[in-house]
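Re: your question from the hallway

Yes, I did run it. Sequences:
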Amino acid sequence: MSKKLTKRSEDYSKWYNELVVRADLAENSAVRGCMVIKPYGYAIWEKMQAELDKMFKATGHQNAYFPLFVPKSLFEAEEKNAEGFAKECAVVTHYRLQNDPDNKGKLRVDPEARLEEELVVRPTSEAIIWNTYRGWIQSYRDLPILINQWANVVRWEMRTRLFLRTAEFLWQEGHTAHATEAEAIAETEQMNKVYADFVENFMAIPVIKGVKTESERFAGAIDTHCIEALMQDGKALQAGTSHFLGQNFAKAFDVKFTNKEGKQDHVWATSWGVSTRLMGALIMTHSDDQGLVLPPNLAPNQVVIVPIYKNDEQLAEITNAVNTIKSSLESNGISVKFDNRDTLRPGAKFAQHELQGVPLRIAIGPKDLENGTVELARRDTLTKENVSIEGIENTISNLLETIQNDLYNKALRFRENHITEVNSFEEFKTVLETKTGFISAHWDGTAETEHKIKELTKATIRCVPYDSKIEDGLCVYSGKPSKQRVLFAKAY
Amino acid sequence: MSKKLTKRSEDYSKWYNELVVRADLAENSAVRGCMVIKPYGYAIWEKMQAELDKMFKATGHQNAYFPLFVPKSLFEAEEKNAEGFAKECAVVTHYRLQNDPDNKGKLRVDPEARLEEELVVRPTSEAIIWNTYRGWIQSYRDLPILINQWANVVRWEMRTRLFLRTAEFLWQEGHTAHATEAEAIAETEQMNKVYADFVENFMAIPVIKGVKTESERFAGAIDTHCIEALMQDGKALQAGTSHFLGQNFAKAFDVKFTNKEGKQDHVWATSWGVSTRLMGALIMTHSDDQGLVLPPNLAPNQVVIVPIYKNDEQLAEITNAVNTIKSSLESNGISVKFDNRDTLRPGAKFAQHELQGVPLRIAIGPKDLENGTVELARRDTLTKENVSIEGIENTISNLLETIQNDLYNKALRFRENHITEVNSFEEFKTVLETKTGFISAHWDGTAETEHKIKELTKATIRCVPYDSKIEDGLCVYSGKPSKQRVLFAKAY
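Structure:
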């Protein structure tokens, strides 16, 4: 606990890796690319889940659960989707182990227990779900189907990083079925807005809503909407995606319905998801060289109280006062932890809570009791002040709201300062290397140019923002005519 | 919807399978032995999860998440555990698919993407978790570790049935680490009691708490505590288990700690779990020939309101009254669905809600409005009465409590009537074949006798009940001396 974190300015990537482990959020496991999400990290994820789940239900969705495995023949049915994920599929080929005759006490795969058809561990569930929907849909009366699933998925990534890119990750995936194209498009847009609302209001991370280019689209989608956030190192992070799938999956899985006019038509689809990757975004947006900084809306403990005492008598008096404060805060909906461990000194506790990003810390000693005050420290600004115990529930309630807003506004200012309009490729490269962040530039609309720019600079088109104005210009790379600017950035 | 369910008395097993599918709880999927949990079934599971999660947290546990995969070398480390699960393991051997050169548009496993070490899809997580705990525990100060995980697990079962036995199922698994044997045993017992409380108070299913015999123990455990329930067909169902693992896993994974005396010792362990199998217990305990019967504490909708009308004007008036009733019920914490679909007649709605086990149904028509009453129907007794709209929130609140208690008491009476003391093997066989249920009999304590009885009758020892008196007797099969009765039954 005593060793300081690497500074962001020294090595941002190392800072991130250290922070995740030392703040007890997650760690690498014995399984290549798979992480262990530790209780403190999982508690934050649970708060995210709870809020998202509420938002999904408020927009009419229900949860369900579909199998982990996808038979290969279903997996390959929607060709683009299959092609997009084939190279990163974990595949189950056998269903039994047996004693290894050559190695006492060891097991081996039983060669006689080979599956007739291999099973893909789901990298995403469109295939298994649309194969199921075929049995659920006959008429327009069966539509829409608005389902979400909380699940684990596996994508065999070669280079992994805790939360940001792991072979197994947790996510939710919405899969909806509609009678009309317009309704499916509206759903796609609605869910992208739900994601934006959640990320902005709960995670305090400003995002840009937009649409992906063809080459950045989800495999099998007609259009991918997304929200893009900017990390402190000037790299973008795709925080959520919502896909309009057209009739691609309905056609691949033969899902038809009788419409109101009595005619058969293929069903229209959407899918949308966010994952434990959001934890990475949360960490990288707000945290500092002292450790994690959590927005109050997602902090497992919004307030921690540390007693400062020399003997049991003092501790007893402090405990009395703390119990009153604690229950008054809790009855105001504030989560409070009284850290009365006798195995650590106050200084060590302060350091731990700072590292773990608890928004507010109260320290309380005998002098404070006499004065009717406590010392209140803000994690985000690292400032302290003495505040009166009387009315402390209002003080803290207001302060938590202030912190939530301040974090958002700070991240917003950073983001606004890191969107740069450029009009030449030289400028493009310079901004990308020196200032970093989003680059707003004209692009000729071709995959060729997009690919060339990526090859030369590692920057990709993050999105065509919803609010991008129609404006005549020349492509920053090819010089060909362009109708609007798009956002480029290097990205996680 | 119109076809009647098979009657329980005709074919209990068929009745169950039909009910699960027709009440929209779950269905079989394209993956052998894996089910799709449909939104209505999942909503019940979510209510179970929410309540259990609250109880786990109230007893000091935190959630976390560990990898889906277990490398074979870790899986085999605890030999008994490995031996117990080896025969039902799904094994990942490859991490990539490629285009099949012999089959255009098809994929095949890329032979070059074979994993160096095979990965077992977790059938249970002791191995991966204890391998992780090694890094978390040095001193007694790091103990206890009280962690729970909500996850999917896979056990390649040959004969599967929706909810009761599926290749993939959802569950929670607690994994705790302790400094002393006594503390670990206390935890094992505590969690078995938590399960009993949950199943009795929320699921309205009476259970017998007890300890498993050696041959029925969890693979790798020193002792397995369990709760056993009785289904309407007289078969027992193991509803939850809590294992005292001793130091077995700590030894297999070399997890040691320095105790207060400064000495190194292996850590003591427990694990405990309940699964979506509980859904099967819920269905089979309370439901009837008309369909599902849900205890109010777990019903996604406790009350459904069906309007009876002939024209839009009537519907508008009814809707007005319903809105008032609905918000008054909701403000009393009662979940209500207003079923105003215009695609179904009232009769069809009644049948659907009956099939889906909604505890209370309100029907309301123009006559009712005049009289200031509604028709209130109980699902469990299928009785109806007219009740006054005024004060309906109290009427319904009390009635929901009554239904919850009645369901429990009904199941308890059935269970009490189906525990039969027998003192000879002839009697044993007769009761098992005619009366069914639990048989309380003396047993000589040997695995040999236990095995023989199972072979001859298919009955297993469900548990040695906590409250089994010490009483001299003779084993019902071998005639050898016995100190207490144990409970036998045929079981799911």
